[in-house]
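Hi R.,

Here's the input for the fe (ii) ion complex you asked about:
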Amino acid sequence: MAEIRIRNTNERIQGEENVRAFLENQEVLYEHWNTDKLPEELREKFILSDEEKAQILSVYDEDIRDLAGRRGYRTWDIIALSDATPNLDELLKKFESVHTHTEDEVRAITAGKGIFIIKGTDDVGYFDVELEAGDVISVPEHKAHFFTLMENRQIVAVRLFIETEGWIAHPYADPSFQK
Ligand SMILES: [Fe+2]
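And here is the predicted structure with fe (ii) ion in place:
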């Protein structure tokens, strides 16, 4: 289940309802999908064939279509990252800078872990959202953030888009942000 860490105070927020309420206040959508649906062999697999990716999308088809219908997302795919990904370190370096998009950034984690660093309201400042399998997040358009892996360095996630072009990252220069 997702956990929040507020960077300025190191305060942690745990428990599905607390996390959901905190994120709702920050205009970030948080939901949870039932990972029991996924065949066991796909719950810890980070190098996926096209068939396995299609299988994951088909297992979660109802959840994907429900979310897409409510939020206007029109296309989706699967991203898998692990130490087997060519140039993972370079990729992560590229990821790890604050930016915005002109549409929501949506991730439904189906295996592994990941973390969103998000610029919250002025009273909160930056906060981390640590995500694991089953966690679904939508960071709204124009909200400054970045995404990266956690210490296990492996993740599989469904990404949903309105248009894939909307996913272009616009750098957000913020002297107040500290890694
Ligand atoms: Fe992003």
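One thing worth noting: The chain has a mean pLDDT of 95.

Cheers,
M.
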